[in-house]
Amino acid sequence: MTQRDFMDLFWKLPSVEVEKRQTAFCQLLQHLLNEQKRFESESPLDTTKFQVWEESLSTTDGQPNQPNPFVASDVNYAQKRLINGVVSSNECARQGFGAALTEMMARIPAVSGTHVLRMLLHVTASGSGEDRQE
Fold this sequence. Notes:
Layout: H1 3-12, H2 18-42, H3 47-59, H4 73-86, H5 91-107, H6 113-126
């Protein structure tokens, strides 16, 4: 998948057409799983370091938008976009982005629930969610 195709999926996720939204969801998830698999083949997940990093998130006031060093760059990017889409006023966006975020968290163990929650709290507190036409 080209980078342009990857980016276009984020414009299809909030579609009012259910089939279009579902297709984008499936394509996005497959791309993220492939990218994470490639990333982990080059840098296998060190669960001890991951746990230490995740624990540090709940004990520090660090930047909630810091990238997760245990996931591929496309996964980090998608996580940020999906979180912003979840807080959109567009109902279809919330459905598409929320489903994709939930499934990404379920299928990629290195996506930290603590990290996602901190990012979500930061976005909702600052009111910086993407209320563009997601």
